[in-house]
Design brief:
InterPro entries: PPR/CCM1_RNA-binding (IPR051222), PPR_rpt (IPR002885), TPR-like_helical_dom_sf (IPR011990). This is Pentatricopeptide repeat-containing protein. The protein is built from 44 helices and no strands. The protein is mainly alpha-helical and about 850 residues long. The termini are far apart. About 45% of the residues are buried.
């Protein structure tokens, strides 16, 4: 097959430098003149074209020397012309080993002007024999590796074609493919592409392995456009690809984020009958997972295993991880079973992914079962496996199990990470297990793995509870250990001082924070604003808010809610409502809790019309009221004696399907008890229990007070006994209510039994309890017992009030003991108590009978 020379006259005399030394290859065709090679003693079998010896692996052929008795051995200079060298090489056309030896000899003499024609002739000779194919490739590699400037590959291609025609060589595509492969092997990718294109222009088909090598280099260098162009040219000439070609192009599409192109290419290769290997399947599976088309991924995986191809650990991990992200644990379990049935063992990576999946679903039992199984199968859990399980156990408040895993991890020689320790410390602190958390913290500090995050976990625990002393001690320990505080650390200290109302120290920490180069954030300012509101200093809180806005820190929704809630709590609810409107204009989206704060503020101020107006505004804005909203309104309507509206809110809450809690019932029960409607109160009390809720101490207290007010002490006492049977503690208020009720019914024995029961439980009477007792005893003429109670008050350091003295004075007045009544009046004055109208009515006007001497007593 003849190929025309591509414009030989345009080739420069020489511009291709690719041999060692500052020599030139003459690119002009030379007429062969017979000459003999130089003596063989100057040519050794260790000579190499690049001046470097062949290794044994490079040169497996034993090269025979050229005959030293050649007639021309005496004319050295004449024999080194390109024409003579070509002529001599052609003499050894059928002996490529001798030709190569001769070339090495003349190339090393220093007087030979090298030319492309000489090299092309030698290359034709070497590729013509299977014995010297490797030498041809090594020769090319050595030349191109030595000089990266060189001339265009088209020069070599044209000279290869030209020399084959002029010197009668059969055109062998091996020479061209070796040339292409050498460019690739020495990373001259642009030259390789030019060579590839030049071969196609000359009708020479690149060999698939060399083409694949070039394609792979393009992909590795991220030259995706050139890779696609090369592949398109291969397809256009009808060249047959193999599995490696498909693999490289699939990588191109996958890197470009075109998983659908990967699938298309895979199916086309299958249709062409290309024998696809495991790596091609792996790329196709990755693409299916990225689409995501997990059904396709599963089918490809099964198809792959059905062909006897073994999926890699990475492939299995990708598929299983994708199903886990989709939450399809059924498919994950099926794939796992297929793996095991096909003889593919469950590895730690896949097992960890499965454990993580169970953890994300909160299925701690299955996660721990799988963990035990992999250990039984001889697999060693890794650090990730333990981390996932420890985090799961802490999240499920299984802190004992989490700590067991932590200890097991250390036993296996796996160094716990600070993340493991932090999870456990956080968990134990949430469970109020301070000793365990402290022990872990001390270990972390001792082992040197405690970071500022570790300290911040503990610091926040102290700060949120206002434990300033402990927080300061921890701060000092952190600094002493060389751990630099972060902005979170400073925020925690500010929080601690805000919790105890020490706003001066909170601002001192703030100032230090700024001096140390930390920029306060929205959390910093929000805590300070909340701290001032909690102290009732709304003006200072608003100043800090303005300061935050002034330094261009945008308030968060949390900040807006703090301001609205704070203003509502300090009785400036109208202002809070106006603020809400202003914040909404700035992009704030109020939540249910925002409106609840304003509604609660108006309820506390007794402005029920305003509270109900905010409720309507809330509904109109599309925000659904929650149980707290309705409970607040019910409570407000009850306090304003508007039981009809309170009941209406209760029914509306139920009609909306809201799950009522105990406080929701308590507000309405308390309202009916205070109005004396015990029938409805009892109905709600029963309903509360029917929906599965348990009455608490507050509910019982309301019911007992209600029955006392309607003089039904039997029902009140029954509720008291029920409380005791159910283990619900009775507080001082309940005992005082019961004692007052029984004293009203002249049941002194029952009243004092309850008083004794209360004292036995360690409940200390207050002034209200003593007032109830003394008033009841005095009305019944039990003045001696009343004075005993008075002495008991003195022992407890409780000063009697005017109501108590009025009861005692009235009691003695009834008995006709005016002297004692007068003495008590003087004693009252000596104690600094100011007599009221009731006192003078008794002493001056003698009004005792029919007087409500205990009218000021309130224990409800």
């Amino acid at each position: 097959m003849k190929f025309p020379l591509k414009n030989p006259s345009s080739i420069p005399p020489f511009f291709f430098r690719c041999f060692p030394g500052a020599k030139h290859l003459c690119s002009q065709p030379q007429t062969p003149i017979p000459h003999s090679p130089k003596p063989a003693e100057k040519i050794t079998s260790d000579s190499h074209f690049t001046g470097k010896p062949f290794s044994d692996s490079q040169n497996p052929i034993s090269l025979a020397p050229i005959d030293p008795h050649s007639p021309s051995s005496s004319s050295e200079d004449a024999s080194l012309t390109p024409t003579h060298v070509i002529t001599t090489l052609l003499r050894h056309k059928n002996d490529p080993v001798s030709a190569l030896n001769y070339f090495r000899y003349v190339e090393g003499t220093g007087g030979f002007v090298e030319s492309i024609d000489v090299f092309c002739v030698l290359l034709h000779i070497l590729v013509g024999s299977s014995r010297t194919h490797k030498q041809a490739q090594y020769l090319l590699d050595g030349i191109f590796a030595s000089d990266h400037s060189g001339s265009a590959p088209v020069v070599f291609l044209d000279h290869l074609v030209d020399t084959s025609e002029r010197f009668g060589f059969e055109l062998n595509s091996r020479a061209f493919n070796y040339l292409l492969n050498s460019y690739v092997r020495v990373n001259r990718i642009d030259d390789a592409l030019d060579c590839f294109n030049g071969m196609l222009e000359r009708g020479i088909i690149p060999w698939v392995p060399f083409m694949n090598s070039l394609l792979s280099r393009l992909v590795r260098r991220n030259l995706m456009d050139k890779a696609r162009d090369l592949y398109g040219k291969v397809l256009s000439i009808g060249a047959r690809c193999n599995s490696s070609t498909v693999y490289e192009m699939m990588r191109v599409f996958l890197r470009e984020g075109k998983p659908w192109e990967v699938e298309k290419l895979f199916r086309e290769a299958e249709a062409q009958g290309i024998d696809l290997d495991a790596v091609v399947y792996s790329i196709a599976i990755q693409a299916a997972c990225k689409k995501p088309d997990l059904n396709m991924a599963g089918e490809l995986l099964r198809e792959m295993m059905g062909r006897g191809l073994v999926p890699s650990e990475g492939t299995l991990t990708t598929v299983i991880d994708s199903f886990v992200e989709q939450g399809n644990l059924v498919e994950v379990s099926r794939l796992k079973d297929e793996m095991l049935s096909s003889g593919k063992p469950l590895n730690v990576v896949v097992a960890t992914i499965l454990i993580k999946a169970y953890c994300e679903q909160g299925d701690i039992d299955r996660a721990l079962d799988l963990f035990d199984k992999i250990k039984e199968d001889g697999l060693a859990p890794n650090k990730v496996t333990f981390t996932v399980l420890i985090d799961l156990c802490c999240g499920n408040r299984s802190f004992k199990k989490a700590y067991e895993l932590y200890e097991e991890m250390k036993t296996m020689g796996i160094q716990p990470t600070v993340f493991n320790v932090n999870s456990l410390i956080r968990g134990f602190l949430e469970a109020c297990s301070l000793n365990e958390a402290s022990s872990l913290f001390d270990d972390a500090v001792e082992f040197g793995i405690a970071t500022v995050f570790t300290y911040n976990i503990f610091l926040y625990h102290f700060s949120k509870d206002g434990k300033v002393k402990e927080a300061c001690s921890l701060w000092q320990r952190m600094v002493a250990n060389g751990v630099a505080p972060s902005i979170v650390t400073y925020n925690n200290m500010i929080l601690a001082y805000c919790k105890v109302g020490n706003m001066d120290m909170a601002h001192t920490v703030f100032s230090e924070m700024v001096e140390r180069g930390f920029k306060p954030n929205v959390i910093t300012y929000s805590m300070l604003i909340n701290g001032h509101f909690c102290k009732g200093d709304a003006e200072r809180a608003l100043d800090v808010f303005d300061e935050m806005v002034g330094v261009h820190i945008a308030p968060s929704d949390y900040t807006f809610n703090i301001v609205i809630n704070g203003l509502s709590k300090v009785g400036r609810t109208c202002e809070a409502r106006d603020m809400l409107k202003m914040f909404v204009q700035k992009g704030f989206i109020p939540l249910c809790m925002t409106y609840n704060s304003i509604i609660n503020g108006f309820v506390k101020e007794g402005a029920m019309d305003s509270a109900f107006g905010v409720y309507r505004e809330m509904c109109e804005s599309g925000i659904s009221p929650n149980v707290i909203t309705y409970t607040t309104l019910v409570n407000g309507f009850c306090k304003s004696n508007n039981m009809d509206l309170a009941l209406k809110m209760h029914y509306e809450m139920k009609s909306k399907g809201l799950q009522l809690d105990v406080p929701a019932f308590t507000a309405l029960i308390d309202g009916f008890c205070k109005t004396g409607d015990m029938v409805r109160a009892c109905e709600l009390f029963s309903e509360l229990q029917q929906v599965g809720l348990s009455p608490n101490e507050i509910v019982y207290s309301s019911m007992i007070s209600g029955f006392r007010n309607v003089n039904n002490m039997e029902a009140a006492n029954d509720l008291h006994r029920k409380m005791i049977n159910e283990g619900i503690p009775c507080d001082l208020h309940i005992y005082t209510t019961l004692i007052d009720g029984f004293l009203r019914e002249n049941k002194l024995l029952l009243a004092f039994d309850l008083y004794s029961e209360m004292l036995a439980k360690g409940i200390v009477p207050d002034i209200v309890t003593y007032t109830v007792l003394l008033n009841g005893l005095c009305k019944k003429g039990q003045l001696e017992n009343a004075h005993k109670i008075l002495k008991e008050m003195d022992r407890e350091g409780i000063t009697p009030n005017v109501l108590i003295y009025n009861a005692l004075i009235a009691g003695h007045f009834r008995e006709g003991n005016l002297e004692e009544a007068s003495r008590l009046h003087n004693e009252m004055l000596d104690r600094g108590l100011v007599p009221d109208d009731t006192t003078y009515d008794i002493l001056v006007n003698g009004k005792v009978e029919g007087e409500n001497l205990h009218s000021g007593v309130s224990c409800a």
